Amino acid sequence: MDVAEFRRRGKEMVDYIADYLENIEQRPVYPDVEPGYLRNLIPSEAPVEPEDYNDIIKDVERVIMPGITHWHSPHFYAYFAAASSYPAMLADMLCGAIGCIGFSWAASPACTELETVMLDWLGKMLKLPECFIAGTSGRGGGVIQGTASEATLIALLAARCKVINRMRASNPQLSESEIFSKLVSYTSIYSHSSVERAALIGGVTMKKVSTDKNFAVRGETLKKMIEEDKAAGLIPFFVCATLGTTPSCAFDRITELGPICNEENIWMHVDAAYAGSAFICPEFRPLLNGIEFADSFNFNPHKWLLINFDCSAIWSPFSSFVLQHWQIPLGRRFRSLKMWFVFRTYGIQGLQTYIRKHVSLAKEFEKMVLADENFEICAEVIMGLVCFRLKGSNEINQKLLERITKLREIHLVPCQLEERFILRFAICARTTELRHIQRAWSHIKKLAYEILQESSHCLKG
């Protein structure tokens, strides 16, 4: 492909992408395929001779699209939002074209410097303490990771290194392995699975902390566990607090947890993967109170801030301007271009409007659920997630979700809260409007009433 064909094909691809996104709600949101479907649609080996580009493009619809879950469809209400915007896509195109590997400042100065400045921009939008901002007298700063999973692992490894160095400095006779075997970390029973996985990779024990009635970890519960573990000769060293848990969007009380961690010299990492974007809105910023106690803080702009995957931001007051030291791989993509394009295109007010729209849609859905006596709300609706269920058994709710999934008109995923099977309804797509929410609720109600009638007939029989 020469430059002339690239120009032509590039314009065709932009048109294809625009058409795809413009008409995405016409496609079934969830694929109707079985595992292994794709292997039967393509040859078992790569072609020896070059193939025609037109044939490749035709196969996108024949091979790829049948197996796509359309995350950016307004009928997608599963997991949490995956951000998408045209400015971010254009920036990703430029990132791919530049193709620099930013493992050091010299490897591509703009890649390093723009990232540092964009994390400062974003940190100021969140009103983070000065110690987290690189362009101040503080030692801190932020860097971009691929995912919150990576950020949590990096924070845990940094905490592990810090505690081992501290223990050996005060007790030179202790071996690293002796210290290692006694390390213990903590997180909520409702934290993301990646937090526990970070502990597995880091080779340390992680204990799950129970929550209050709002599914939040409280200081008193954590303090008791720490005291018991210290009395048993263990070394508490790391706490991962969650702001906006995956099951219910609950908020651990970091104003209570932070002082305990600081007093005990325990690293507190705050994971706000989904909810962090909302803290740019003044009405949600109080949920971040207590961040001044944190040793690291992370959230995913690629979830709810219109910046396409992957873009996960982490800050620390102990950061390093050698960015390669704050990530697992050596090389770095020029991901800050996406932030620069999006922040300038939308402005802070535009981003706030977008987040508020999703929250208002979630509140509308909550009203619809509350108006129906057959359903119940299962957790406080704070942001763009509504946890709800049919009143009754776990089995009847499982049956409802199975029917929803089978019909493929909308896509939901469940969670477990206090051993109850819950349906999660997350406002995800940039293009979701009230009419989509109303249609989804009508669909859910129709299926629910069918199941209730069937259950009634079974009981009568």
From TrEMBL:
Q: Which GO terms describe its biological process?
A: amino acid metabolic process; carboxylic acid metabolic process; catecholamine biosynthetic process; serotonin biosynthetic process
Which CDD domains does the protein's record reference? DOPA_deC_like
One Pfam entry name? Pyridoxal_deC
InterPro entries per record? Aromatic_deC, PyrdxlP-dep_de-COase, PyrdxlP-dep_Trfase, PyrdxlP-dep_Trfase_major, PyrdxlP-dep_Trfase_small
Q: Which UniProt keywords apply?
A: Catecholamine biosynthesis, Decarboxylase, Lyase, Pyridoxal phosphate
Query: What Gene Ontology terms describe what this protein does at the molecular function level?
Result: aromatic-L-amino-acid decarboxylase activity; pyridoxal phosphate binding
Instruction: List cofactor names only.
Output: pyridoxal 5'-phosphate
Which pathway, per its entry? Answer: Catecholamine biosynthesis; dopamine biosynthesis; dopamine from L-tyrosine: step 2/2
* Annotated Gene Ontology cellular component terms: cytoplasm
| Lineage: superkingdom | Eukaryota
* Top EC group: lyase
Q: Where are residues bearing N6-(pyridoxal phosphate)lysine located in the sequence? A: K303
- Give EC number(s), comma-separated: 4.1.1.28
UniProt subunit comment: Homodimer.
| Family per record | Belongs to the group II decarboxylase family.
Q: Which PANTHER family match?
A: AROMATIC-L-AMINO-ACID DECARBOXYLASE (PTHR11999:SF167), GROUP II PYRIDOXAL-5-PHOSPHATE DECARBOXYLASE (PTHR11999)
Q: What is this protein called?
A: Aromatic-L-amino-acid decarboxylase
